[in-house]
Amino acid sequence: MIYPEIPLAQSIIEICKGHHLKHIVISPGSRNAPLTIGFVNNPNFKCYSIADERSAAFFALGIAQQLKEPVALLCTSGSALLNYYPAVAEAFYSQIPIVIISADRPLSKVDIGDGQTIRQQNVYQNHIIFNANLTEIASSFNDMLINKALQEAVLKKGPVHINAPFEEPLYNIVEQKSVSPVIISPHIPAAKVEIHPFVKTWNNANKKLVLIGVCEPHMLNQAIIDYLANDTTVVVMTEVTSNIHHPNFIQHIDRFITPFDEVDFNDFQPELLITFGGMVVSKRIKAFLRKYKPLKQWHIDIHRHYDTYDSLTDKIITTPNDFFSELFKYTDNSKIGNYRHWALNLAKKRQIAHQKYVSKIPFSDMEVFQFIFNNIPNHIQLQISNSASIRYAQLFDLDPTIEVFCNRGTSGIDGSTSTAIGAAVASKKQNILITGDISFFYDNNALWNMYIPPNFKIILLNNQGGGIFRILPGHQESPTFNTYFETEHNLNAEHLAKMHQFDYYNVKDINSLKTTFSSFISRNEKPAIFEINTPTKINDTILKEYFKNLV
């Protein structure tokens, strides 16, 4: 085996190996050559070469999202690591462990006019779990920092940064290591909550609302799901990214809550709000809970307890499974209440109104989403881009066997395709991405990737602009709006598909969609893009009228 000659590079590689870090996403460069040589020539690591650092970072995020373990990013000095920042922020807020290893010039070269040199230390300080600013000479102190960074990525589930200065020569290799760093494995403490203070509140509350944000598939035990579903004093609200299903749960929040009048708001106001999972998409539920506050709110999470609804009273530092398993030993769900009955009856009325409306709408984004959700295969993994796509996805039923992911930590459009490809590489399931045109073209370097599985597919809704801006307040037809908000364009994905050797399908009406879709789904010789051109100017009207017709 060959090793980089520089001892500091050897230490980083050996400690990464000792912490069982397996996946290294490398962006080509010179200053990171010692680490690139070491990682690539060590059979303990699976290395990927992704030239665009922003895409590389989201690609790594997608792998880590699926494997639930740290994935490393490696880049050269200068502006390279700044391109990681969008994915670093997403990893921070989505609690996904990634390890950024940036090569640097020695500190003496910073701010003297040396090329490709910036202030790299602590560059992610507002969105990082831990910074390891190493010194040029290998030492036990450096080893401690590297160990600590890798420990924190696991223990606190987020991004960490290891900044490593190297002096030339960078490409020299040796056949024997000159370092033997100590490996310090993370110790995961048991989370223990004193449950009895919560039992009385639960038993006394007649209106308990459980609101579930982004969750990994299969996160919540079925026994807990069933207990919550059978308690008539409990309403459980989920989103498509919650990956938790039961017929007694309210899964279409905006559909349910948008037509509320003052009486409905007061009837639905909870006494106790219990939240867990990641970020919630629905703005309407946030506005409702901020105005009609519960008497108490519990948020359950090992690491983060955001006061999203301005009502947080208790931070419960454990997992939902552990908390509810212990709580339900002392509670009784035989108590008869009207809260769930009222909510489920209203949800059934909304479902009838929903079906009546969507059965007669013209070809549009909404009709396309209805068709897709009715026809995509079961048992797949579905990645959804942000903005309009994830909001349309909240309105339709999806088979419970389909796992759903979306970058909701920062809700950005910037890396959805790259994340989906990383997830597809790590997942054993077929992976389909549903995306809008602005998100797709913004991240088109995601396709510059030699690791894309042949069964990876993209469904691209192209309405020639950022259609969500037509839905938001302030929309008006004007050159300013069309250029600087909607970002209207005449682009299509055909040439990108050809350049990157994707199969390509394009339709412009519902009949063509129906006749072509099954071929797109069934053919898996190459990755594929299915571009669906929808009208630019009626989508917002159809969506607004949809909510008006739910009463």
From TrEMBL:
Pathway: Quinol/quinone metabolism; 1,4-dihydroxy-2-naphthoate biosynthesis; 1,4-dihydroxy-2-naphthoate from chorismate: step 2/7; Quinol/quinone metabolism; menaquinone biosynthesis. InterPro entries: MenaQ_synth_MenD, MenD_middle, THDP-binding, Thiamin_PyroP_enz_TPP-bd_dom, TPP_enzyme_TPP-bd. It catalyses: isochorismate + 2-oxoglutarate + H(+) = 5-enolpyruvoyl-6-hydroxy-2-succinyl-cyclohex-3-ene-1-carboxylate + CO2. Coiled coil: none annotated. Keywords: Magnesium, Manganese, Menaquinone biosynthesis, Metal-binding, Thiamine pyrophosphate, Transferase. One of its GO terms (biological process) is menaquinone biosynthetic process. Residues 8-121 form the Thiamine pyrophosphate enzyme N-terminal TPP-binding domain. Binds 1 thiamine pyrophosphate per subunit. Transmembrane segments: none annotated. Catalyzes the thiamine diphosphate-dependent decarboxylation of 2-oxoglutarate and the subsequent addition of the resulting succinic semialdehyde-thiamine pyrophosphate anion to isochorismate to yield 2-succinyl-5-enolpyruvyl-6-hydroxy-3-cyclohexene-1-carboxylate (SEPHCHC). Belongs to the TPP enzyme family. MenD subfamily. NCBIfam families: menD (TIGR00173). Homodimer. This is 2-succinyl-5-enolpyruvyl-6-hydroxy-3-cyclohexene-1-carboxylate synthase.
